[in-house]
Amino acid sequence: NAPASESEALLASRQAHFAKPQKNYYRRPPQIERGFREEMYDVDGRTYLDMVNNVTILGHGHPRLAEAVGRQWSLLNTNSRFHYAGVAEFSKRLADLAPEGLDTVFLVNSGSEANDLALRLAWAHSGARNMLCLLEAYHGWTVASDAVSTSIADNPQALTTRPSWVHAITSPNTFRGPFRGPDSAAGYIAAAEKALAAIDAKEEGLAGFICESVYGNSGGIPLPKGYLKEVYRMVRERGGVTIADEVQVGYGRLGHYFWGFDEQGVTPDIITIAKGMGNGHPLGAVITSRAIADSLEKEGYFFSSAGGSPVSCVVGQTVLDIMRDERLQDNARDIGDHLRSRLEALGQRFAIVGAVHGMGLYLGLEFVRDRQTLEPATIETARICDRLLDLGVIMQPTGDYLNVLKIKPPLCLSRAGADYFADMLARVLEEGY
Ligand code: PMP
To answer: Is the CB of 110 within 6 Å of ligand 1?
Structure first.
């Protein structure tokens, strides 16, 4: 075991040499050494329940994945300009998972890259530049994906520094937005229509629209009923391309749906995925139609050195095999439903609970100071997360006010794990914060 002073020295070294904008989760973080399933262990052997890891969907340290990756590393790893089985087989498998017509795949290394490429595809396909996106959004760190990221929690200057081609519309936050409840789509659709009319007036055309199809960054809030159907229609009417960012919410996490857009009953023109599909290995993808994919050739060829490498394809295939064999989407639905009911019960007992958002194992617990005014309980939420760490639970806030617990554990979460989380949360709320 590393003595506490050694761990502190390591943290000081991180602060000295790892660039400052790369934030740590905690002010006094445990030094994590290994993980298994939904648990992580620090250098002192303390166990933490990982309720926040939306990347490691299979759980930590999965032996079947480690074995498959190790075998492929010793066989071959190179770039996708070579002809090998993995890239053909994995691309077909992703196309098979997508709705009909979305049969063409680009393999990249992250969600930021996937969204960047999706935006470039929309530009190339439409011949226009203007892009519609939502307020409160996060889509990545690359220049283009950052441009459509409007979350003030991630970037306090976000709203005053977006380039002129970015047109952010009212966040369809049915809990605290200007229109509330699942049947509030009309108000948000009108806001989108107004923004589209302003773009029309510029006579420059519309490239498209990007959004998460269940609103993950605002805490896992489903979009109002019928919202995407109508906004997609208005965007397509103008020659724009619709992009569903499924990086966080898609790929089985919602339990009840494999894709977030299934919840809205729509099919986008482009799907972007990453995070869970690689279980922590850098892997992302864009799935679209042949026509949209081919339009990129106007700008030359596309090549990513490690995107779709033999190792990445084995990771992608093995993740899907394990998800199927261990029925992880079903587990996300069943354990998610159970956890949701436990969180709703906390809402009966504690006034600070404003709402339980989400479904499957993408849940959001929103804390408010007052159920009438919905004043966000931001400081309280930070304290609750700190106290949960003392009790062995990793949890972090999200949303523009950082007052929503983002509950997105590995999809293998057990019922006992879900109950431990709910019990510890009850204890913290009983203690006060
Ligand atoms: N889109 C969404 C919705 C995300 O949550 C994230 C990451 N938080 C990204 C894109 C960017 O993905 P990555 O970190 O893999 O670049």
So the answer is: yes
Residue showing tokens 């066989």:
75
Domains of the chain with CATH codes: 4-58+327-431 (3.90.1150.10), 63-325 (3.40.640.10)
C-alpha of residue 211 to centroid of ligand 1, in Å: 12
In which order are the strands placed within the sheet that holds 39-42? 32-36, 39-42, 47-50, 393-394
Tell me, using a 6 A CB cutoff, whether residue 280 lines ligand 1: no
SS3 178: coil
Structure tokens at 56: 């490691």
Paired sense of beta strands 208-212 and 241-245, if any:
parallel
Q: How far is the CA of 274 from the centre of ligand 1 (A)?
A: 7
CB 264 less than 6 A from any atom of ligand 1: no
259, 250 Cβ separation under 8 angstroms: yes
In DSSP terms, 222 is beta-bridged to 214
Q: How remote is the C-alpha of 316 from its chain's centroid?
A: 17
Q: What is the pLDDT of residues 254-264, one digit of tens each?
A: 999 999 999 99
Contact 43, 1 (CB under 8 A): yes
Please count the residues of the chain.
433
Q: Quote the DSSP letter at residue 297.
A: G
Locate tokens 């724009």: which residue?
A: 240
**Ligand 1 contacts CB of residue 220 (under 6 A):** no
**Three-state SS at 338:** helix
Spatial distance between the Cα atoms of 407 and 394, rounded to a whole number of angstroms = 10
- Structure tokens that stand for 21 in this block: 């904008």
User: What ipTM goes with this model?
Assistant: 0.99
Q: Say whether 32 sits in a helix, a strand or coil.
A: strand
Which is nearest to 261 in space by CA: 276, 274, 271, 273?
Answer: 271
Using H for helix, E for strand and C for coil, what is the string for 251-264?
A: CCCCCCCCCHHHHH
SS3 212: strand
3-class secondary-structure state, position 404: strand
Q: Going by CA atoms, what residue is nearest to atom 1 of ligand 1?
A: 139
In angstroms, the CA 352 to CA 2 distance is 39
| Shortest-distance atom of ligand 1 to CA 249 | 3
Per-residue pLDDT for 225 more than 70?
yes
pLDDT at 2 over 80: no
pLDDT at 154 over 90: no
- Mean local confidence (pLDDT), 76-85: 95
Please give the pLDDT value at position 308: 97
Q: Say how many Å lie between the CA of residue 250 and the centre of ligand 1.
A: 12
Helix axes 328-349, 415-431, angle to 10 degrees: 20
pTM to 2 decimal places = 0.97
